[in-house]
Amino acid sequence: MACADNGAGLTHLRWASWTPELASAYGTEWENDCKPSCAQGHVHHYPVVVMLWGSAAVNGHPGQRRYTEATLSYPQGRPAVYVRSCNGTVVATYPATQTLPLGP
Fold first, then answer.
1. Is 26 helix (H, G, I), strand (E, B) or coil?
2. Please, which residues have CB within 8 angstroms of residue 37's CB and are 6 or more apart in sequence?
3. What is the mean pLDDT of residues 12-41?
4. Average pLDDT, rounded, for the chain
5. Confidence of residue 82 (pLDDT cuts 50, 70, 90)
């Protein structure tokens, strides 16, 4: 879920459904706040509902499909956390829901 710095992830996922069109789970998201830097930041944990959706072919695996989007919802709210984006800028990420593209 993070660029290449391992600054965020999902853990303890319990899958409620899994179909070719949609998969859903609940669990915990962890995220480094990168304050004062990512190397010295603190990891925070948030309850999360995860939905995987969209469909695309898997490169190099004919007939296989993958999800293309992930939507994360935070049922207990999510405080503002400042993180470094993939291009190095610091951004505020505090929505109750966020949708992320999933790589190939």
1. strand
2. none
3. 89
4. 80
5. low
Do 47 and 76 contact (CB within 8 A), yes or no? Answer: yes
Residue 12 identity: H
Q: What is d(CA 58, CA 33) in angstroms, rounded to the nearest whole number?
A: 33
The residue assigned the tokens 């010295």 is 40
Residues contacting residue 100 through CB under 8 Å, at least 6 positions apart? 1, 69, 70, 71, 72
What lies within 8 Å, CB to CB, of 33 at 6+ separation is 41, 42, 43, 44, 81, 82, 83
One-letter amino acid for residue 43 of the chain: V
Amino acid found at 100: L
Beta bridge mates, 92: 82
The amino acid at residue 20 is P
**Has residue 48 got a pLDDT over 80?**
yes
Asked if 31 and 52 count as a contact pair (C-beta separation under 8 A), the reply is no
